[in-house]
């Protein structure tokens, strides 16, 4: 991808909306099981994003993507405008004076290894940069080698371990950090 917010042909990367919550909550439960955020938590986070201190995005087929309503195995069917949800992600950047936190990044299993995680991550890292943050931090399961590889490939470095951070099953989290250079664009200039 040449720039954040420029999804490949046939895909749409856009801000998460209230209408997306049923699809996001369903995918969250399927992917994260007992550790999934509840629909109420997802709703509260999305509403908190209106304050401007965090950002949530979704990826779905765009106007030239598959629109026939058939299950294509790429995501959660019966979504907004009949499109399947391919992924979603969220970032807290606060007032931009410190570090941003990647809160969640999820891709439908059948849509993995197509660059969607990288696309969403690049978009949120750029949001943090434009907000003035000095770094992006995240926690990832020690056993989640695919996610750790993605983060490493994008410049994140492991900086520590949070023992027994995850509950179901109990597992350590690897804490990773990406230092950011100053943005050349104004705060809030990222595409919505």
UniProtKB/TrEMBL annotation:
One of its GO terms (molecular function) is acyltransferase activity, transferring groups other than amino-acyl groups. Residues 61-70 have a biased composition (Acidic residues). Keywords: Acyltransferase, Transferase. Residues 11-181 form the N-acetyltransferase domain. InterPro entries: Acyl_CoA_acyltransferase, GNAT_dom, YpeA/RimI_acetyltransf. This is Ribosomal-protein-alanine N-acetyltransferase. Residues 59-79 are annotated as: Disordered.
